[in-house]
Design goal:
Elements: H1 11-21, E1 26-30, H2 36-46, E2 51-56, E3 71-74, H3 80-86, E4 93-96, H4 102-105, H5 111-114, E5 120-123, H6 150-168, E6 172-177, E7 180-181, H7 189-197, E8 202-205, E9 212-213, E10 215-216, H8 217-228, E11 236-240, E12 245-246, H9 248-259, E13 265-268, H10 292-298, H11 305-318, H12 331-335, H13 342-355, H14 364-377, H15 379-384
Parallel strand pairs: 1-2, 1-4, 2-3, 4-5, 5-6, 6-11, 7-10, 8-13
Antiparallel strand pairs: 9-12
Helix pairs in contact: 1-2, 1-8, 2-8, 7-9, 9-11
């Protein structure tokens, strides 16, 4: 049956109907107190009669107070005793937002613990796909098998969970989001809007322009709510990404139109730039996910990109502290088309690995080659080379 598409002016409007149409449930959210998990916990607690438990290490405070009905349990999922303490009680569903390695999920998969979990919803990533992925890639596109990488480890977790579904029909659902942006995130939209408002340049990759379909965080939360609320999602894997595939140049142009600030876009072919500025994706290929499966199975609709960015801009204006621009360590060099020094590249690599997980998709031999390129480009190494 066709469901009419619509977009929403708030997370509450988008999730309220869904949260009320499923029975009251006991739901645990693993990790995620800052961004996605915060939005999900608040949506489930405020727009339904669910009992919500947030389980994490307690190291990162929530950006705003959670509803008082949310039960926060402090624990480390790497410690089996902590997982056992959480599962002293049964849960209708667990949303796992912090599983990055197979060792993170294994404590929850003992026979005793599985019997206490009615549905395991795992937040994976589009980084599980081999690069470059097919244009408009589906959930069956080839995945990476590079152990020890962000995408490879997420793929390994997927395999473990789906194996439990095939063996015993233990309810599992895999969600693969990409390019998530929205309130309380410092990258993507917030990065661009803050630099536009401060009249600072935005550096983008020179050459062919790749496209990516970004995902509004409210739509991702709605996807989780839909998945939790239906058995049709059991044993399924879903790409979750918006309908609109745009280039970073398009993304910046839309933000500029919304805020009314002129965009100073500067392009650079210096590959070291990608390790210094991580607010906007830097890719040499399209990353366009096919989202038809979750739309067909669950009737999910996605907020048009321009409308989602407009909502993000309205939220940022109400939270002016979030509009403080991120000054780039290499801004002086990029503005003058000078090579980025090795010291800044090294610091940027550490930041990029944390802030933009797609970099962690690289196979180990590519990482080694990349490090050698960084070293070869550094002024220190050039000084040490013998002179002819």
């Amino acid at each position: 049956m066709h469901r009419p598409q619509r977009h929403y002016t708030s997370l509450g409007e988008k999730t309220a109907g869904r949260a009320r149409c499923i029975e009251a449930m006991k739901i645990a959210i693993l990790g995620g107190s800052r961004f996605i998990g915060f939005h999900l916990a608040r949506a489930l607690a405020e727009h339904g009669s669910h009992q919500v438990t947030l389980f994490n290490r307690g190291r990162t405070p929530s950006p705003e107070p959670l509803p008082p009905s949310v039960n926060v349990v402090i624990g480390d999922r790497d410690v089996p005793a902590h997982a056992a303490r959480l599962l002293d009680q049964p849960f209708d569903a667990i949303c796992d937002l912090s599983g990055y390695s197979p060792r993170h999920v294994l404590p929850f998969l003992t026979p005793a613990h599985r019997s206490r979990i009615g549905h395991y919803v795992f937040c994976s990533t589009s980084s599980v796909y081999q690069v470059p992925p097919p244009n408009l890639y589906t959930e069956t596109a080839p995945r990476t098998a590079a152990a020890g990488t962000y995408g490879g480890d997420k793929a390994a977790i997927e395999d473990i969970l789906i194996a439990h579904w095939h063996r015993g029909r233990w309810p599992v659902t895999i969600v693969r989001p990409q390019g998530v942006f929205g309130p309380f995130d410092a990258q993507q939209a917030a990065f661009v809007f803050s630099r536009l408002r401060a009249s600072l340049p935005i550096f983008l990759r020179a050459g062919p322009r790749f496209r990516i379909n970004f995902l509004y965080v409210h739509d991702l939360v709605a996807a989780f709510v839909d998945v939790i609320g239906t058995t049709a999602s059991h044993g399924r894997i879903y790409n979750v990404a918006g309908d609109d595939a745009v280039t970073p140049h398009d993304f910046v142009a839309i933000c500029s139109e919304i805020s009314g600030d002129r965009a100073d876009i500067r392009t650079t072919a210096d590959w070291r730039h990608r390790f210094v500025q991580v607010g906007v994706p830097w890719l040499p290929y399209d990353l366009i996910a096919d989202n038809r499966a979750i739309k067909s199975d669950l009737g999910l609709s996605f907020t048009p990109l321009k409308a989602a960015l407009a909502e993000s801009w309205t939220w940022l204006q109400a939270h002016p502290g979030r509009l403080t621009p991120q000054l780039l360590p290499a801004e002086h060099y990029l503005s003058r088309h000078r090579p980025v020094p090795f010291s800044l590249v090294a610091a940027g690599i550490r930041q990029a690995v944390v802030a933009f997980p797609l970099i962690r998709m690289l196979h180990p031999h590519r990482v080694i080659a990349l490090v050698l390129r960084v070293l070869a480009a550094s002024p220190l190494i050039r000084m040490l080379r013998p002179r002819g």
